[in-house]
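Service request form, structural biology core

Requester: graduate student, group of Dr. S.
Request type: structure prediction, single chain
Budget code: on file
Notes: please return the result as structure tokens.

Sequence provided:
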Amino acid sequence: MLLPAVANADAPAAPQPAPASKRGKGFAVPTPVRTEHEGEPVNVTGQETIYDSKTDIFVVKGDAVMSQGGSVLKADEIDIMRRERKARAIGHVHLIDPEIEMWATDGTIDITNETMVLNNAKVLAKKDIYHLEGKQIVKLEGQSYEVKDGFFTTCGCEKGTPDWSINADQMVVNMGHTGTAKNATFDVAGYPIMKFPYFVFPADTSRHSGLLMGREGHSGLRGYQWLQPYYIAIGKSSDATVALDVETSQRVGGLGEYRLVNGKDDYFWVDGAFYNESLRSDANRVGDVTDTQMADPHIPLDRYGTIAMTREHLTDDLMAYGDTVSVSDSLYLREMNVWTLSHGFGTSFSSLRNAPSEFGLLDQFEDAFVRLGGNWNQDLIQPQQFALQRLPDATVTGRQELFNNLMFADYDAEAVNFYRYQGIDGLRLDANPRVTLPWRWGDYVYGYGEVGSQAAFYDTAGHNLQIIPVGATPKYPEPTCANGGGAVLNLNNCVAVSASSADGTSARIVPYAKAGISTVLDRVYDVEWKSIEKLKNTIEPFANFYYVPNIYQGNMPLFDSFDRLNSRSLVSYGFTTRLFAKSRGLPPEETTTETAPTEGSSDSDSTAGPLHEETIGPDTLVSHAGNIVRDGEHSSQMGSLTIQQAYDIGHPVSDGSDMSDVEALLNIYLTQVAVFSTQVDYSPRAHAGVTLADASVSYQPPWSTAKGSNMYMGKALQGSFFELAYNYANRDDTAIPPLGRNAAQFISGTAYTELFDFMGVYFSPNYDVASNQMLYTEYGLRLKSPCDCWAADFGITDSYNPNEVQLQFQLTLGGLGSYGRSPFGRNPFQQLGLVGSPTGVLPNY
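Core staff response, request fulfilled:
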């Protein structure tokens, strides 16, 4: 009689009533006995069990199932070889594991090492992301596979022929790591497109040297651009990247980057580049210079740029720091579209008006710090001889508690030597001591009083500088004004040396006093609507007074804002109202965003060394508003409104009036859906109206996949969104004297939406209403797989400054990476997966 049986392959063989010299059928299987053994116990069930005591082999037939831990193996027949701790599965083999799912006609399994050999097999891994098929698949330890006569793709969620695949006679694939293939072809829709004798998959998360994904594009100004980087893994905490950059209509050159990271405040990053402009025609040079009124519009033949930053703790409290941007010419940053080979250095290099460098030592004490350093500015607009440098600059800042925390004494003192090649410069010693008395009346009213003084001593020499503003015409042709021989200045101010001089020493002391009072009124509403339990509204009125006596300072040098403290008896007043929502349940525990490593990085190296190149982790929602957690209750701010104004009792604030503009600031946060913010300045003087206004709205449809794809989609934009911004400034407040048009009125927007499962569109305009001119327009089209296993992005960018039309292309293979340069922007509701900068150890910079 054949009985359904349960076998424990880890249990010892029980003594049998008769010698087992041959296979016997219908043996009653002994009660499973669990013993200490390497690994978890293995259990087998089936309709029919045959046991050979001589060979210690169980043969389970008919709906055979073998389970160990979280893994389940199903087959028509499973043979368990207990001595070797191996198993053989025959017929309709199906393995279900937490990491993978496999199918095969037959195979053998090493239970101890969790390895196996499968024939006519296929493997799905990581939530159907990776898909392997082959005539034979050998599973090695971990998630590594050797495949014979098979293919690899990430289009595992699609039925039938995958959209793309890598086919090879022999293949070694480490899921999520490096894959190699011999005699390989890259197939699209089942048709071979390219053939390779040896091919390496760019999916390795360990740091190793090798070629990285390049960038390609084309524009009417640059021509065809090809950037090819190569990554060099130097050590556990350092690496480097070099790249060749070819722009067929302008330049050819190279970039190099070195990074050393030993801790959060212990790193050194430097990026350098050199270009030769021999490929560039004279027409290309002349046509690219939009601002002809800058001091040096010349484009040299050889160009270079350096961007670097460093922090190093010499002791626990003493830190050396340095940050620099240095370029060969005034147009370098504006003309280049690649400044560094990795993120973390900063952004918006193309819009810098000067290339700054700062360096020094910072020593921290309890409630104080001392800094000795300097600043060097390379002016990219005005003549360099007028650029003001701070060399050296010594600062002491601190706070001292008085009378058992009843009062606080704050102090700032500075000694700085101002230096420039031409114009007034010299030494300034300044101090700003002040005493503050905070007070409160229960939980109803809060306030403070403060008295202090600004004192400065000067030892200066040199001629003062004359500023010729936009809209004016220099009376005499000024060599430092690149305005075409006395033409109207309509792009930049002009700086010239004044005939007067200011030599010798001078000093001034200006006392001041401040006081303020505020309170908070609140009310809680029980709403019980969906996930919102309560709404809380606060109204926070405030008033402040700032007094500075009338002390003449017009004969003092003017280096920065500290050199002038204008007289005032200024009262500022207003209110802020906020709306909070209390959600049901406790706040979610603080967790770390799970991200995938970057190209050329590893999990184990993420804290010991710099991560490499682009972050590939899933984008996460940006926290747009503040949250409050108190006594286990979680509240989120949904909006705020601030309205404020200032009135000077004895001095005109603007246009002869003692009253300032009325300023309104409004922010509305609809979590994960929309963000709206606006600022409006209204002038009550002679019904002048709105002098300044800006508004922006960011909207993400609720159905948009905010968390992105479940696989790495490289640098591809993810999630539908819409963003619109408007900026306005009254022409009387934008230039002196006023120009004949409104000098500041812009509309900009960005939007991306997926029209279908296989197509998305992108549009990003920037329009100058005042000059009736489109400054920047970008159009994009995405063709994609419905299950995000590939995406092809096409973009056209038309910009005014620099004046070019550029074509960009990016191909993304899901799970592997991107090739080319993304023509799209980034979803404002999303951020890079790693907290802080892409290094994971550097602060936001």
